[in-house]
Amino acid sequence: QAMGVATVDFGLLAGAAFPSFAQQQDDSTTGRRLALQLCSGRHFVAPGRRPPMSVGAPTFQEIARRPDTTEFALRNIIRTPHPIMPTLILSPAEADGIASFIMSLKRSSL
If both were cysteines, with which of 46, 86, 87, 97 could 31 make a disulfide (CB 3.0 to 4.6 Å apart)? Predict the structure, then answer.
């Protein structure tokens, strides 16, 4: 019986440490929605959605394809104001969602 409890505990710990596929999908879907609302004025966020302003901002697909693009790096960039980008006040969950959406583009372009 002790072995069964340890297995359940490990499963719970693994679930907390590694988000499930469904959770990643939710984050990515929420991130896509936020990106379309907040970022599409400057970035080409998704197919069929052209930004109204041409400011030379990279497309989300280009960002995703960069070899140094990681979810950690994206979270930092999203939360840090940079040239031409308006100041956005995002919750950590919102920034994580946008980063997750961009990373989903990386996975889909492989």
Answer: 97
